[in-house]
Amino acid sequence: MAPGAPTLLLLWLLWLPGFPPRAAGCPAACRCYSATVECGALRLRVVPPGIPPGTQTLFLQDNSIARLEPGALAPLAALRRLYLHNNSLRALEPGAFRAQSRLLELALTGNRLRGLRVGAFAGLAQLRALYLAGNQLVQLLDFTFLHLPRLQELHLQENSIELLEDQALAGLSSLALLDLSRNHLGTISREALQPLASLQVLRLTENPWRCDCALHWLGAWIKEGGQRLLSSRDKNIMCAEPPRLALQSLLDISGSSLICIPPSVHVEPLEVTANLGEDLRVACQASGYPQPLVTWRKVAQPREGQPRAQVQPEGGAPRPGGPGTSDTGSGMLFLTNITLAHAGKYECEASNAGGAARVPFQLLVNLSQQQQQQLAPVPPPATGPVSHEPLQEAGSMAFRALGLATQTAIAAAIALLTLTALLLATMICRRRRKRKKAPGPPGEGALFVNDYSDGPCTFAQLEELRDERGHEMFVIDRSKPLFAEGPTEAADGAATGPAQGLPLQPPAAYEIHC
């Protein structure tokens, strides 16, 4: 063999279909060739790092990936096909595929998705096929697929979908195939299928259809022109209820047999008076066919911060949510820690395809006398002129009716006035002594105190007089008591009795020798 022949042979074998070359940037345990990366059945829990950015087809099936980490697919802007089927995905974050603007096919079959958020498929403007079969989807909300204008195939079979909102399929103007078979759908509205202008294949079999007036349009639509969308197998739309129509094909039932019974509502009692802080439950019973949806709401729109009523299924735990939350069959108005804001008019509404019925309910809130006093508004302080009425005498009935704090304040004021009088009398007596020690000719501003006997005196015994020249002169009048209002003293100093009505002990008799 010529020199170098083994090397050439090895290179030739590596380029055979069975021997794909390993790319330099291939993740560990994955197989990479051309623009395809295979990482299936490797027990991966996350998207492996190191996938070449030029990858166009990525196989991640049969792993244990439970969540798409933010930014995990961001470097893979060239992806055309992404296979994530048979993993453990529970939710799709909005914008998880925002970088995959070239993606044409996305397989999410066989995961654990229970719901799809609006915006979960944002960025997939070129997507053609979306596989969501075999998940745990319960309902499809409005505008779930709004960001998929070029989608042609939508596979939703083998889920648990029981509610398809009227605008759930909005935006799917290019959709050609819709598979809703093997779900829990009981009805579907005409509005839900209206956005599907390009629909060519519709699969609705193996659902528990409720053949009533709400499904009348579907039977008429199929008979008029919708048969072209259904294969011979798909035309067997079998009724599960009512019992008289069970196991019959919708196409074999006359329109007059598809009937509804309008709802009737019963609330007992219609008015309740509750105490502040209590909890309250009021049942709303509804009957009709199909089973009505029951909604409690406050008649007046609650302001921001006002408590909202909760609705709970009868016999069940409270459901979160406010007025407008619905429940089938019967609903329970559940209010906790009742305040004044809860008082007012409520309304229980039951609706089905046959119509709607409403019953009003009145809630009154009872306040105890103590609570009424606590909530009573405080009167504003008086702004009028200050009253000049005389204070009540200490011994009067009005004084005794005052509070302890007021009585103490009045007594303190009386004591303060008495002390002030004593201080003034002391000052006058001192000035008199000084004048006796240093006598001088009387002149302007001279002060004379005439006393005709020695002994104690008080301010109450002094009388202010002026002589012929206008000089000030104080004369002691011994006929007056030592205190104008207070206990009188005998000559030996013993008190003869308290002043009339004074509730405090009489002050001590301060003597001033003038």
TrEMBL record:
Q: SMART domains from the xrefs?
A: IG, IGc2, LRR_TYP, LRRCT
Q: Where are the transmembrane segments?
A: 409-429
What is this entry's stated membrane topology?
A: Single-pass membrane protein
Q: Specify where it is mainly localized.
A: membrane
The cross-references to Pfam families, in alphabetical order and at most eight, read:
Ig_3, LRR_8
The highest taxon in the source lineage is Eukaryota
What protein name is recorded for this chain?
Leucine-rich repeat-containing protein 24
Gene for this chain: LRRC24
